[in-house]
Amino acid sequence: MKRHIACLLAASFVFGTIISAQQKLMGFTDANASSQMGWEKEFDAQLSAKNQDTWMQFLTSHPHHIGSPQGRKNAEYMAGLFRSWGYQTEIAEYDVLFPTPKTRILELLGNKPYKAKLEEPALMEDKTSGQKGEQLPSYNAYSADGDVTAELVFVNRGIPADYEELEKMGISVKGKIVIAKYGGSWRGIKPKVAAEHGAIGCIIYSDPEDDGYAQGDVYPAGAFRPKDGVQRGSVMDMPVYPGDPLTPGVGATKEAKRLNRSEAITIMKIPVLPISYEDALPLLQSLSGPVVPAAWRGGLPITYHAGPGKEKVHLKLQFNWDIKTLYNVIAKLPGTELPDEWIIRGNHHDGWVNGAADPISGMVAEMDEAKAIGELVKKGFKLKRTLVYCAWDGEEQGLLGSTEWAEDHQEELRKKAVAYINTDGNSRGFVNAAGSHTLEPFFNEIANEVIDPQTGVSIKERKYGSDFVKADKTARTKLTGNKNIKLGALGAGSDWSGFLQFLGVASLHLCFSGEGNGGEYHSIYDSYDHFIKFKDPGFQYGIALSKTAGRVMMRMANAEVLPIDFNSFYKTVSEYVAELKTLLDNTRAETEQENKMIQDKFYDLAKDPTKGFQSPKIKEGVPFLNFSGLENALVQLKASTEEFQKLYGTGTQLSADKQKQLNEILYKVERSLINEKGLPRRSWYKHQVYAPGYYTGYGVKTLPGIREGIEQRNWKETQENIEIVSKTMEAYATQVQQATAIIVKKPF
Amino acid sequence: MKRHIACLLAASFVFGTIISAQQKLMGFTDANASSQMGWEKEFDAQLSAKNQDTWMQFLTSHPHHIGSPQGRKNAEYMAGLFRSWGYQTEIAEYDVLFPTPKTRILELLGNKPYKAKLEEPALMEDKTSGQKGEQLPSYNAYSADGDVTAELVFVNRGIPADYEELEKMGISVKGKIVIAKYGGSWRGIKPKVAAEHGAIGCIIYSDPEDDGYAQGDVYPAGAFRPKDGVQRGSVMDMPVYPGDPLTPGVGATKEAKRLNRSEAITIMKIPVLPISYEDALPLLQSLSGPVVPAAWRGGLPITYHAGPGKEKVHLKLQFNWDIKTLYNVIAKLPGTELPDEWIIRGNHHDGWVNGAADPISGMVAEMDEAKAIGELVKKGFKLKRTLVYCAWDGEEQGLLGSTEWAEDHQEELRKKAVAYINTDGNSRGFVNAAGSHTLEPFFNEIANEVIDPQTGVSIKERKYGSDFVKADKTARTKLTGNKNIKLGALGAGSDWSGFLQFLGVASLHLCFSGEGNGGEYHSIYDSYDHFIKFKDPGFQYGIALSKTAGRVMMRMANAEVLPIDFNSFYKTVSEYVAELKTLLDNTRAETEQENKMIQDKFYDLAKDPTKGFQSPKIKEGVPFLNFSGLENALVQLKASTEEFQKLYGTGTQLSADKQKQLNEILYKVERSLINEKGLPRRSWYKHQVYAPGYYTGYGVKTLPGIREGIEQRNWKETQENIEIVSKTMEAYATQVQQATAIIVKKPF
Asked: Is the interface score ipTM higher than 0.90?
């Protein structure tokens, strides 16, 4: 085969892409690819649905939140297993602030008083649902303590746009308690925005339209949220920084310097409580005021009013503000050739209660994968690079375990971390992948090989068919002839943040979803019994996830040249820039039109004068901004990444030393997207391409410095961030050019 | 002024549109326009909210459906008033088939039996709601008699697309009873389509999402439908022919030849019953089978399943199939110069129960208008043409009164009818107009003058502002700089059908709406108490409607040249043709794509194999059709209508004799859109441009022969109808050319 490749090499500047098409595996010589693929067959044979099932039964047998006895037991159980599979395993402990409720009172006062139950009943059909003494009650972690009595206002999802709508209705939340539906943003946004508008308390409920009977039959007859089901969850202001509120930027070790609680800006300013739709009903029924816009309606059998109501609401919350120890399991399988290049894999092990789907379904897939690789190594499989398998604790409260570990090991990780592969729960259906866009071709290579257990085609084919069926006309045009799975962009939501957004480690998040929908999320009903009936009976997709993530790990560990594609990154960023220019132009045009409509009194003519609606106010015009620096940087990035990708295939022929130099650039290129100053108003988030939205939370904001500048109409900041991103792209292009230089200077 | 006009005339072939811009009123000399506008001021001063209120109180004091004592009293009361205002008034009687219920039983059998209440309770707050002995019970007129027991299937809206969805779910309605939500089509479509698919019974209910608490507070606290409220209504197969089922095409006079009931194809084939959402709840709750698609969900607090249920449903309906006499009031004010040119105005007077909004709010506006014109005539106002004011009976059952009268007087109407102006209920808000597109500029002229009572701008300005605010981006682009109110196209739904679609009389339908929404429709709660609280308190919009329709009547009566605009017709039809070509092309492209998706097994990959979904079946390809004849006819129509409109303004200078010739062409041009053979499968509907949809009912299908051919994938019929429409447009253009010839040959 060598001759053949050498022959092609001569033409590589012109026909470079042909080489990669000829390659068996991205970044491998043909010989090594054949061997690697042989071991992958063996790997698949090692995977065991029965093991995944057994482990899930143990890990979900009792509530296993941070600080619980079962949480620690689970860490030790897993550590024992990893050791037995040949991994160098430790339990990494951190001490973090973790509030739990002392008092939870919510009541409607007045003529028709109602005291909220705040209780999820045990079910005969669910054997762990009755473990009352061990369960965390339904609450929002990092709510403020508080005892407030006030009128209630319904704020829809509680995002900024909803407050604009309330203003049109002439309603203020100042001094009021708000009630918001779950959904439409990360939950922590709701109390944050409420407090910004002067509210003194916040109730969040699961509306049955989104998360209850409207979606399907409720548990235990069906998978969906029953009337008393409550979504627990953290309301830490994670878009500012995740992890322990008292130790931003550093590991929460015993000796770490801690903030006072009053200094921790990620703790909510007002009391917040999540409730069920049964508890929400009397509160919503008590409201008067305007009938809400159609888009605000939920699925309760009432007329939704914005409020306020005649009757006041009393909300009293008090918490134990304890420091608790968390237990991360860290299991290493050292590489034989490049032990200081780490491929890191993580899933959290803590749940809000018994947490079967979230997170154990992902955890057992990761364990199965680690076990199989361990078996392979025992049989002679060689790993060039080091694998680091992690089981994180305290994810649910705000990515505590992964963030503290990443902060604690930041120096080492900046040097050694090649990539971080995350999972966090799994069900049936279609493969779902998001992450650094340099990994897109590599992920597609794997998705093309893993077989969907239900249809017998590759998971890529199945996703494509399904995406096509679900797409609208425009989307179908885009999809036609293009089976490439576009990676989603990562915001917040699971344990990649410390790696990707704080340190600049290329990351990938994987799961299967779409056919195991349900309403168990963060309730006592996310149990083994629920999972095995409604999510992934038989763990077929647990196995598929192990196959997918396992291939990512093993190929990354053994590739001669790391499977990083600069040009995919360029293409994605150039799409984002085009989006942002359109966003700015549209914002300008919409502002002009809106202002003209106000001046022409169209809003005054459209409104019903018998209702108290306010017409909107004139907004400041949108300036033109200078994108030329960024556009020029993109031209440079395009040229350099195209040049490199033509040469990429020849990298496998470099000397070991040159390959090491090349690989270091390949995995450290993501670091060049880090700006140590961080994003405006949140210096912890340093990545210039991916961040959680300041006002959306989970929802990613790509090129966040620019995008949020536009969205928040801060033109000076937008222009500054265009310059910062330009510089970042120039630095990235320089890295790419250096990578090219390494290959081109190779003496043949 | 004469010199000035003559001067402009010389340039009229080039600058013709300037002439109309200079004219004070379309079709009037300046002098006559000034006088006419003076009388209109006097007309406005005559209108009286107090009278409208008093008349409404009388007319709604008891249930006044066809055959009721109050129905007859109302006809006599109005006839007396018309006479007192100087009108030659008669009561025109017809004898029609009108079934009323003897037996209504609906029950769910099995373990959790439920017997439907089928009863709207009296309310303290509504003084006529307790007139139990006089009220028609809740039922669907022209349902079949039947006694059926079967499994129940939920069919969403019960339109053809819903049955395609059911087929994908693997559900047949053969031998079953179906339950459908109101909405999405005219109600009569639901049992018709159900019967076509083999169902043996049909239940229709008002879902609270569309028509109940989701929309707003329910009566009597708010305007919306309470839990026991039922929408009565006809299920006659009106898209085949309206009016008395036993006398299609001829007036139902005492001596008319009648069909046997078994021959009357507009009577439904299966029993049908409308119910409240309270009665629907246990039926829907009893269903199992697949959870419905999201778009099918309603507002009840349950998981909607498609069914069938384990438990059967028993539906028993028996009717008195009586012949009843209906009473149309026909009041004429003869024209002084052209008594054989009739401007006809109508609103029905019968209600399903006390019918205040529907129809009396429109009826009293018409009466006020007639009274004011009568007063004007007493003061010396001269009407060139004859006004015919009508109050129709039996509209609710299927346009009985208006259709029988139009059929009975068809010969006379073909000769004399200039236009038909319809109203049918009114509330607050924005002007709403639909009709023959030749009347569009004329309507806009009037809408520009009538002042909106709430905002003080013209009703045209208010509608424009509101439309702009409510429009999406694309629609705003269309609206910018174009304040012309586009007339809607008329399908079915009120009394214009006999005039427009059977005889080819240009028609216009008017109302105000948008701010008086409620859930009283066809229930016992459509009462004076409801109207005066929620619809148009103070009758300000009743007065605005009188002003609008009154101007239409008076200007049509006195214009030298009738205010008909051929070019507006051309523009509208050419838009329809463009739409249909796009529809055909899109249908072809979608069929190709859909077939490819089926062949590529995308549906098989997208579906959850644990559910019993069926992938769709390959459809026959869509051929290219020959539109050239129609396109050539449109070229001719464009040229001829543009030429005529340039000359239109000079028509006022013609001799009386020439004017008469010209006007005859102007008002008879709508007759040239009639094809005596009628539309495919429904020969009663003869208009080639506007018809109710065979499978939508109320919803209009423009160029119906072509459009429904495409929708029903009958390519041969589509091509045939393209030819028919081509010929129709050629004949229309010939009429226009003759009108031009009359003007051009005028000796100046």
From this structure: yes
